[in-house]
Each structure stands twice: as C-alpha cells, then as structure tokens.
Amino acid sequence: MSKRHRPRRGSLAYSPRKRVRSETCRLKREDRVADKEVQSFAGYKAGMSHIMRADNDPNSPTKGMEISAPVTIIETPPLRAVGFRLYKAADYGKNVVTEVWAENGNSLDKIAGIIESSHATSFSINMIASALPELVSGIPKKKHGIMEVKMSGEIEKDLEYAREVFGKDIRVADVFKEGDFVDVTAVTKGKGTQGPVKRWGVMIQNAKARRSGRGRHVGCIGAWTPRRVRWRIPQLGQTGYQQRTEYNKRILKIGEDGEEITPKGGFLNYGIVRNDYIMVKGSVPGPKKRFVRISHALRHYPKLGSPEITYISRVSQQGK
C-alpha cells in the first residue's frame, strides 16, 4: 500500500499570527509608481453592492456584452497634509533628518535648506497625512488617523508638490482616476481564539480516530526526540485581525455624490455615504467601517481604461 502524502496546511509566511497594533495600516513597501506625487490614499469600507457594466476586456469571452460584477464601496473623505518628514539614506536604511508640521506654524524652508546644502539624491520626503473621520457619518471616531504617505521619490518634484498642498486637503480624484488598478490594505475581521481546523485548515480526523470524542486537532504534535513542540505545528490561537493586502483591484467609479450608490435606508451597519467615494471591483479585507489604505498597483495589470456602467444596485439592505 502506498503511503499517503499531504502537504502542510496554512501558509507559515504570516506567522506569528498576532493581532495588529493599530487599524491604521502601515505600508512598508519601498517600491514606488513613477509619475505619481502621492502613492496612496485612505478611506472607510461602507459595504458591497453589484453593478451592470459593459465588458471591455479584449481577452474576455464576454467581450462587448453586459455583465454583472460585485463591487465594494469605500468612502474617501479628503486627506489633510498636516506635515512632511525628510529622510536621508544611511548604511542600514533611512534616518529621519527633520519634520515640519502645519499646526506648529512651520514652513518647508527648513527642509529646502537642508536639501540645498547637501546632495539631493540621498534624501526623500514622505507626507504626514491625517484622515478626517468626523466627516464620515458612520464612523464613531474622534481621533484622526495619522499616517505616512510615500511620494514619487524625485526630491525636487516632491518638494514643489509639498509647497502646494502643505496644510491643505487632498481629494481622491487628485490621486486616482477611473479604470486604475490599485492594491488595498486593511485589517481583516477578528475571530478571536480558534482551533487548528479553522485557523490552519487541517483535516478533521476520521471516525476511527474520533472514538475518544476529539477530532478537531492535529494527529501528532512532534517526535519524542527532541522533546519540544516546534513552531510549525498547527495549534490554536488568535485568528483574524491581521493586516493583509489584496493586489490589482480595479477602480470602476469615482464619485462625489453618495446618493448615486447608497441603498435606500443606507448601507447596513454603516449608514449614508456623504463624501467622495470609490467603487472597487470585488471584495476588500475587513468588516464595514474598517480603515482601508489604497495604493497604486505595483504588479502588472491590463490597460482597460474607464468602464461603462449601465446600472448600480440601490436595493435596500435593511431587510437582510
């Protein structure tokens, strides 16, 4: 009889699976999209709906036909450029040189003077942006989410753009346009402490092995020697509430009037969209009201242009 082989379940790349410190996600990637002054934006997940649109993908079997697509609505109030931070390249990464804040009455002359007195190629500027949750009716938050937003990486161009927006609001239409592909980063739904079957996807044991009344555990937690349990063994623990990124999500619509997409009675457990919004094809990590970071896509994606939407569902969600 041949020996049955089955690879391990659950990716170890996400270990240790701990709760995140903050829902304001931190984007650690260093790659930047060329010719984009602002590399990312932020919003709040309102809910899901569906639309009808014309398929303009030249490689799709339904090319030219009207198709249905699930969409996620992300309300995107303006981001306020409250400050800028200057970094200098070092042997082991980047070091903060200085930062200026609009609320302290600072100006960008301090950063410009440091750049002019040294080599500009060794410096980079990041924007310190503030989310404005008080503009969103469905978010019970008073504290602003402060985050760093990477810029193009061209120091002269970034400094000129910083002078234009310092202390001002930036809208989502200034960063993205319809048809763009983006990467969305958010904190997933928290599920608390779960067993290895749900947490890692291990197989439930067969009836013969469940005679003791237990079947939702691993068959063996390790050898007799060495006498310790390795970290690779699937065990129970925290599930969910972890930062995850989904790649190449297409923006189908960017709007200013929330009544165009808000269902009758508002989105369930969220309310009415009152600010700018974007409509993304497919799902987004996290529950409703979750803070979402939206970044320009780094991976290859097709150039499809702006889609033609013929119908947006606004059926009431209150009865579900």
Plain-language structure description:
The chain has 320 residues and is mainly β. Helix content is 8%, strand content 33%. It has helices at 109-116, 155-165, 196-200; strands spanning 40-54, 66-75, 79-90, 93-101, 123-130, 146-150, 169-170, 181-187, 190-194, 237-240, 243-255, 277-281, 291-296, 308-312. A six-stranded antiparallel barrel has the order 1-2-12-11-8-13. Strands 3, 4, 5, 6 and 7 form a five-stranded antiparallel sheet that branches. The protein has a two-stranded antiparallel ribbon with strand order 9-10. A hairpin with a 2-residue loop joins β3 (79-90) and β4.
Total number of beta strands: 14
The major β-sheet equals:
6 strands, antiparallel, barrel
The proportion of residues forming helix, as a percent range, comes to under 10%
The helix/strand order is EEEEHEEHEEEHEEEEE
Unreliable stretches covering 5 or more consecutive residues: none
The Cα radius of gyration reads 24 Å
- From the N-terminal CA to the C-terminal CA, the straight-line distance is 52 Å
Mean pLDDT: 90
Shape field: globular
Strand content: 25-35%
Spatial strand arrangement across the major sheet: 1-2-12-11-8-13
Helix/strand class: mainly beta
Number of helices: 3
